[in-house]
Amino acid sequence: MTRPPHPHIPWSGGQGVRPLRVLGINPWITDFAAFNLWSRPVGLLACLSMLRSAGAAVALMDCLDPTWDGVAWPRPGRYGTGHYPKTEIEPPPALAFTGRRYSRYGLDRDMVRQGLARLDPPPDAVLVSSVMTYWYPGALDALEMAAGLWPDATRILGGPYPTLCAQHAARHARADLLVHGALERPENWTRLWRTLGREVPPLPDGAGLRLALDLYPAPEFAPVLGSRGCPFACDYCASRALHPGFIQSDPGPVLASMEVEQMRGVRDFAFYDDALLVAPQRWLWPVLDAVATRWPEVRLHTPNAMHVRSLTADTCRRLKAGGLTTVRLGLETTDFDHRHDIKLTRREWETGAANLVSAGFELADIGVYILFGLPGQDLAQVEQAVRHVHDFGFRPHLAHYTPIPGSPMFNAACLASPYPIAEEPLFQNNSIWPCVPGGFAWDKAARWKALLRG
Fold it and tell me: Residues 301, 327: contact at Cβ < 8 Å?
């Protein structure tokens, strides 16, 4: 498929004489830096899939996707990743002290407004997503734009920002409804339809696990979502606040979605699961078997780190045979006696790493995330971890700590940070190193960059 002439956004689905029309907007990123690492708003896509299955007509405006033919976009990187176009803007007053360039990433704002203004017929409701709490300015801008274009449309804000920063969102978001947590929660599903003045339909099968990927006219890549939530409880993570349970899909819908996307030319698929290797026989093994036997041209990627303790020799062989191309691991620290996640022993780490190499993965394809900037963290331990990863021949990556409301570590982060991170989500931005004494500094950043290069 090709992208439509800009600016045009089509409606999809809809049952009955006058179906409910819901427009989903994935807003711009506002930050010091941003990179497209197979980025898709899977929460928003799950919501649009649920609404369409319940009889609504849906449309998507993803401000982080090329969307229309002829729009200037940076040259793609490897396997569909790459840079976003950006427009430098004034930083919010709270971040002016940094003296750093601040930008809006994604499609040109005027072009987005022009495309939305041509949406015919207009929407009854506008559902705006949020991803990082400190990206909320883009979400608020999208809500304001919707209010100006369609004053009578119901404006809904969902995602991590209103879920984890509910009071801040209630004060600042021009929304008629804030969705706290996943839409498939029965109480959220009921509130949404009642807010819209409609009878509440039953939740569709697979709610939360099916994605409306067809709303992208010419995708370079596609997400794979076989589960929601996470059975672990890492101190720095708010997964349980966002998705308290852990559910997994049957393999059939996952395989069907991948097959459809391949028919549209997609070859790169990124796993979005927080716990990819938990109970892999449920759905992951059938997916890997299908790639190995039927889809040899497919490349799989794990931008979310895999749990090293699950990397048995058999698992690594299956991953390699099943097309895994980009490998990311979560080491986080080599201080094995004082870890912040489910305990990983040195032996488990070394065994998992050796199993990957034995399975045939190239060293250059294996990246390892190391947590940086935790409250009270000994940065000498981070340096040790970087050198440890280099010794294995893998590529270390610093995973800069984001203090997330709802995570077990957040109270400690509030005590460690000089910024009011509980009151203002902008200060939760990991680019300012919110819990590192002295905060971000260019000379320190350059030193860490040199250490990572080895």
Answer: no
Q: Which residues of 264-290 are buried (b: 16+ CB within 10 A; e: fewer)?
A: eebbbbbbbbbbbbbebeebbebbbeb
Angle at 15 between CA 13 and CA 19, to 5 degrees: 90
Tens digit of each residue's pLDDT (9 = 90 or more) over 374-402: 999 999 999 999 999 999 999 999 999 99
Q: What single string gives the DSSP state of each residue in 350-411?
A: HHHHHHHHHTT--GGGEEEEEEE--TT--HHHHHHHHHHHHHHT-EEEEEE----TTSTTHH
Q: What is the pLDDT of residues 265-322, one digit of tens each?
A: 999 999 999 999 999 999 999 999 999 999 999 999 999 999 999 999 999 999 999 9
* Nearest C-alpha neighbor of 174 from the set 133, 132, 126, 112: 126
For tokens 């190995």, name the residue: 292
Residue 301: what pLDDT? Answer: 97
- Domain extents in the chain: 12-195, 221-453
Q: pLDDT by residue (tens digit) across 3-35?
A: 777 678 999 999 887 899 999 999 999 999 999
User: Which phi and psi angles does 351 have, rounded to 5°?
Assistant: -70, -45
Q: Report the top-level CATH class of 221-453.
A: alpha beta
d(CA 153, CA 23): 10
Burial of residue 314, with CB atoms counted within 10 A of its CB: 0-12 exposed, 13-18 middle, 19 or more buried: exposed
Top CATH class of 12-195 equals: alpha beta
The full DSSP string for 217-236 is SS-S-EEE--EES-S---TT
Look at the pTM and tell me if it is higher than 0.85: yes
